[in-house]
Amino acid sequence: MEITSHxxxxxxxARFDSSSAPAEVACPGCxxxxxxxxxxxxxxxxxxxxxxxxxxGHLYIEKDFNSWVGGAVVVLAIVASGIAWARNVLVSIxxxxxxAVLDLAVWLVARERTRCYRCETVYRGGAPNPxxxxxxxxxxxxxxxxxxxxxxxxxx
Length: 156
Known about the structure:
Elements: E1 2-6, E2 13-17, E3 24-26, E4 33-35, H1 40-45, E5 59-63, H2 67-85, H3 89-109, E6 112-116, E7 122-124, E8 133-134, H4 137-141, H5 147-155
Parallel strand pairs: 5-8
Antiparallel strand pairs: 1-2, 1-7, 3-4, 5-6, 6-7
Helix pairs in contact: 2-3
């Protein structure tokens, strides 16, 4: 299983494999070090039940696709559709429909990855854990750095 950790200080990414995981991972950007604790579920069953970097048990699954590419396809389809609208409405709608079909095809083909709510560590290539659900905004909000401040503001 490939594990990608993001440094909490500078957001630089460091990748390592679970089969040959180091005792600690060093940030390639700022040199900060974090301990790596590979559990039995990762080694034995190739599935994640707790984050190997922060120990958090709150993980979610998502499609493994670059969101910048997906956003660029949507923006390109909107611009092309807008330009085509002046010439032919059916071509404009066809461009949007083509973008939707492309999106569906990518969604069907893309693999899933597991991600930690707390430290945003990404796990690719592992067996799926049925205990993990899709992303939940309410649960993610609990791990925001200003959660307690925002909660106090809204309870007044």
